[in-house]
Design goal:
two-stranded antiparallel sheet; binds iron/sulfur cluster; alpha+beta; 4 strands; about 110 residues
């Protein structure tokens, strides 16, 4: 990957992408910089939303990005079988959020190559 470019108080530009922090080394704790999701929607995003230039579930906070499928799937999962299944049980959304987190490797550190 190319070197990081200019930097401001909250935004670090990387090839024109507005990151929230510099990307940490691969394997280091995820900082929510946003690089992986801004570069290309992940396979889970493509599976749920179809192929799009930008992932509809990428949530921008003041100091980091987060994945809406993990933090609030009820706000992002579109109508269909998955939504019906989650709504059918009181714990459905929580289970879905945990499943999405597992599928995305949440807590396992930065999985974007250096
Ligand atoms: S689904 Fe989540 S992890 Fe995947 S690209 Fe969208 S915001 Fe990123
Ligand atoms: S996984 Fe890595 S590239 Fe993706 S948001 Fe976290 S720190 Fe940034």
């Amino acid at each position: 990957m190319a070197a990081a470019g200019t930097e401001s108080a909250v935004t670090v530009y990387y090839d024109g992408l507005p990151l929230k922090t510099a990307k940490p080394s691969e394997g280091a704790p995820c900082t929510g910089c946003g690089l992986c999701c801004l570069l290309q929607p992940c396979l889970l995003s493509v599976e749920i939303f179809g192929k799009q230039d930008a992932c509809p579930a990428l949530v921008e906070l003041a100091d980091r990005y987060s994945c809406g499928l993990v933090t609030a799937p009820q706000d992002f999962v579109p109508a269909g079988e998955m939504r019906q299944a989650a709504e059918a049980k009181e714990w459905g959304w929580q289970a879905l959020a945990q499943t999405f987190g597992k599928l995305l490797g949440a807590g396992r550190g930065c999985d974007a190559s250096d």
